[in-house]
C-alpha cells in the first residue's frame, strides 16, 4: 500500500503546530497503524528529520497509551479497537489519513501526538483506591457478591484510561472515565466504606482538572476501545446525589 499521512507536528507545548503531509510507501496491509508510523519515523531519521513523537507501550490494546485521533475518530475507524491494534487493511491504497493528538483543554499537547494526561492521575489520586483496613485476607468466597454486580464491576474495570472519551466529547468531559473508576470499586464489598467520599472527591478533582461538563452526547461510549457503557454515567450521578444527602 502507498498512502499519505497528514500528521500534526508541534515542537512543544509553548509553540504552535501544523499538519504536515508525508508519503509512506510499500506498507503491508497486515501492519498495525503504529508499525506504519515506525516505518515513517525510520525514513524521517535517515533523512535527518525529527521523528514524529507518539505514545505507545504494550501494543496489545491493554495499556491505553496509543492516544491519537485518526481521520477525526479517537483510535480510528474500527469500534472497540485501540490504535495499536488497528491494522492498515482497514484503509485503502492511495488514502490520505489525518492523524492528530487528543484535543481537550485538560490534555495539553507536549509534542506532536503526545499529550499530558496527568489530569487523569489526579482524579485517581482523589479516590480511585481502597484504604479501609480489612485485616487478614478473607477466603475468596466468604463475601457473596451478586453476579450482576460482579459482572458490571468487571465491565467498568476494563477501562484503560486512554482518554478517548475525553477526545471525542464535544465538551472535553471525562465523565465516562470517572464513572468507570467509581463504579468498579463502588460495586464491590471492599469499596463500600469509602463509597460516598470517593464519588464526591473524584468529581471535584475532575472539575479542578479543567474537564468540561457532561451533556449526555454519548460520543464517549461510541469511541471507547473497551466498550464502557454510557449508563455508568447515570450510576455515577445517582451515587453522587446519595453521597451528598448522606453527607448533609
UniProtKB/TrEMBL annotation:
Pfam family, one: Fer2_3
Organism this protein belongs to: Paractinoplanes deccanensis
Keyword tags: Iron, Iron-sulfur, Metal-binding
Domain spans labelled 4Fe-4S ferredoxin-type: 150-179
Protein name according to UniProt: Succinate dehydrogenase
Cofactor requirement: [3Fe-4S] cluster; [2Fe-2S] cluster
Family label: Belongs to the succinate dehydrogenase/fumarate reductase iron-sulfur protein family.
2Fe-2S ferredoxin-type domain residues: 18-103
Amino acid at each position: 500500500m502507498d498512502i499519505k499521512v497528514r500528521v500534526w507536528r508541534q515542537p512543544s507545548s509553548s509553540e504552535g503546530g501544523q499538519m504536515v503531509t508525508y508519503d509512506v510507501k510499500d506498507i503491508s496491509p497486515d501492519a498495525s497503524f503504529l508499525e506504519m508510523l515506525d516505518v515513517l519515523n525510520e525514513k524521517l531519521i535517515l533523512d535527518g528529520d525529527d521523528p514524529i513523537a507518539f505514545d505507545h507501550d504494550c501494543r496489545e490494546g491493554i495499556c491505553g497509551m496509543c492516544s491519537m485521533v485518526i481521520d477525526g475518530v479517537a483510535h480510528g475507524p474500527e469500534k472497540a479497537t485501540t490504535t495499536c491494534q488497528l491494522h492498515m487493511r482497514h484503509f485503502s491504497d492511495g488514502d490520505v489519513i489525518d492523524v492528530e493528538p487528543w484535543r481537550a483543554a485538560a490534555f495539553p499537547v507536549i509534542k506532536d501526538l503526545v499529550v499530558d494526561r496527568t489530569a487523569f492521575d489526579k482524579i485517581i489520586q482523589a479516590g480511585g483506591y481502597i484504604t479501609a483496613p480489612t485485616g487478614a485476607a478473607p477466603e475468596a468466597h466468604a463475601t457473596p457478591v451478586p453476579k450482576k454486580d460482579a459482572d458490571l464491576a468487571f465491565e467498568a474495570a476494563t477501562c484503560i484510561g486512554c482518554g478517548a472519551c475525553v477526545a471525542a466529547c464535544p465538551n472535553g468531559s471525562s465523565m465516562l472515565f470517572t464513572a468507570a473508576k467509581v463504579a468498579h470499586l463502588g460495586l464491590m464489598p471492599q469499596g463500600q466504606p469509602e463509597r460516598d467520599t470517593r464519588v464526591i472527591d473524584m468529581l471535584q478533582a475532575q472539575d479542578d482538572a479543567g474537564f468540561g461538563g457532561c451533556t449526555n452526547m454519548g460520543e464517549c461510549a461510541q469511541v471507547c476501545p473497551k466498550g464502557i457503557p454510557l449508563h455508568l454515567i447515570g450510576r455515577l450521578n445517582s451515587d453522587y446525589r446519595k453521597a451528598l444527602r448522606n453527607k448533609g
